[in-house]
């Protein structure tokens, strides 16, 4: 149990804190360039409404505004498979673009954290947390985990997320303060969802 609490504390400290860095703006992605049927039979379009709702079901990067997730259309992706998922997580780790920052959109992910997709199997995307994050606001950890889960599962083919560090499974904080040692879904974070 002590190891599980240590791992949970590690994920909370790793994901705690605030920080925003400028990133590039979203752009159109040719549906033919998206691998292994992530878009299904038709290419959805992504539009963010004034209420923060992402229309069209396309991939999105989830940032934070007023303690809730705020979807942003995904930046252009290149390559295939895991490369595209990694690019989506790179955009998440970089923080919202300047235009969104001016709209009070930020992130709960701390500066210095890096995210990498290790693999996707049977709809479960394994995301490795690394880096040397700064910040210690543990209350932000569930929101940071929610950002990762919503961003990854916005892509068709990824239904849940397993968080790891150095290859070991991490317990993750839920919005109610409990810790779980299993794959995470967007439903786990519905109370803070966009």
From TrEMBL:
* Keyword match Acyltransferase: no
GerMN domain location: 85-174
Enumerate the UniProt keywords alphabetically: Signal
Cross-referenced InterPro entries, in alphabetical order? GerMN (IPR019606)
SMART domains, alphabetized: Germane (SM00909)
Signal sequence extent: 1-23
Q: Which domain of life is it from?
A: Bacteria
Q: Does the keyword Amino-acid biosynthesis apply?
A: no
Q: What Pfam families does UniProt report for this protein, alphabetically?
A: Germane
Name of the molecule in the record: GerMN domain-containing protein
